[in-house]
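pipeline stage [seq->struct] | target=Alpha/beta hydrolase | organism=Paenibacillus sambharensis | residues=260
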Amino acid sequence: MQTKPHKAARTSKWKKILLWVGIIIILGLTAGYIYLKSVTYQPSFIAQAGLQSDSKVTVTEVKGGYKFEYADGPVKEPNIIFYPGGLVEPVSYSPLARELAEAGHRVFIADMPLNLAIFGENKADSFVSQYPEEAFVIGGHSLGGVFASRYAAAHADKLQGVFFLASYADEQAAIRDTELSVLQITGTNDAVLNREVWESSRVNLPEDTIYVEIDGGNHGQFGSYGMQQGDQQPAISGEQQIEETAAAIQDWIAQLDQDQ
């Protein structure tokens, strides 16, 4: 039979072990967070300036991200939801959001936990719930496009279409059997996108998917956050790539309107 002092000593020992385990876990999580922040791409000065409201576009921080709205006229449907690339700050996509907002659309950029869409697949819910009677399309860049497509696959009844910027739909994001319209945009100078995976993933998209290739565009210039590691130098400016991207999205949306 154990004496009370023995029991107390054993309890004290386990408390110390649990305390150290807790400290190690906290230190590990803190180190992981600091590392992720250190490798996250930051918005350019142009992107940061794009977050400011002006006479053309009103920018508001909302639940789940940022909202861009045309300031000088009625909003055109569909609203646009955008999922950022992995480890890229959402503000980095403000130039693209502004281009689309100036065309009349309400644009939402999702702010992902740890800047990774894998942790925020359903972020779109908060935007759709704000305007439940209005039409929406969703899209994303790189990793963001994969998870935008996964959201679309599970909520096809809430959306009109999906667009991909240097991205693809994996098997879990397959939307080939839905009524969704799909737009695929890539750049000829993109050295980050895995072309083999991108090509094999085309089977997960509808046969009538629209493909647009931006001559001279690379991976990072779909946003505005500087040169991405492993990418190829672009042959066009970031401004031109964003303008061509926005124009392709607007042309696709115009086709959606005709098909309704």
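stage status: PASS
auto-comment: The chain has two domains: 1-39, 43-259. The longest strand covers residues 76-83.
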